[in-house]
Specification:
- The structure is a single chain.
- With 145 residues, the chain is α+β, with helices and mostly antiparallel strands.
- It is built from three helices and four strands, in the order αααββββ.
- Strands 1-2-3-4 form a four-stranded antiparallel sheet.
- Helix 2 runs parallel beside helix 3 (67-87).
- It is globular.
- It starts with 16 loop residues before the first helix and ends with a strand.
């Protein structure tokens, strides 16, 4: 079939597979397009401590964790569960108070933070690296000290 103007049909423009994959891949987000990081640091810290205490499922935090941080937390939660089981101690909701949150931005769209947390037995620190991906913060690194 020909078109009304007598010319050939125009074909849809097809991009290379690499261009399509990059378009749908996670996209970096600059700091100005992201919310303040403190509420996420605060909530993620409490969530991590609850996961390790056995009163929260690690999957509930998956949305805010990068793949490596998620795997590390799953491993640590499994070790905590085994230790509780070996001692015969049931999971109990921890009582923690966040004393301070320190954060800095080493680059645009990246925040490194540490939350100092006082518990009933000891004071701990939770270190996080947040990166802006797809319009939200995600913790790409997580350490409980």
């Amino acid at each position: 079939m020909s078109t009304a103007s007598g010319g050939a049909r125009s074909r849809p423009r097809v991009g290379r597979a690499l261009d399509v994959a990059e378009y749908f891949a996670p996209q970096r987000t600059p700091s100005v397009a992201l919310p303040p990081p403190e509420p996420l640091v605060r909530n993620l810290t409490i969530g991590v401590l609850e996961v390790l205490a056995g009163v929260r499922e690690v999957e509930q935090l998956a949305r805010w964790l990068g793949e490596d941080a998620f795997r590390a937390l799953v491993t640590r939660a499994n070790l905590s569960a085994r230790a509780r089981s070996a001692r015969g101690v049931p999971a109990a909701r921890p009582v923690h108070h966040i004393l301070r949150i320190h954060h800095s931005a080493p680059a645009d769209g990246i925040v490194e933070a540490v939350a100092i947390v006082a518990g009933p037995v000891r004071t701990r620190a939770v270190a996080l690296r947040l990166e802006g991906w797809d319009g939200r913060w995600r913790a790409t690194s997580l350490a409980l000290l």
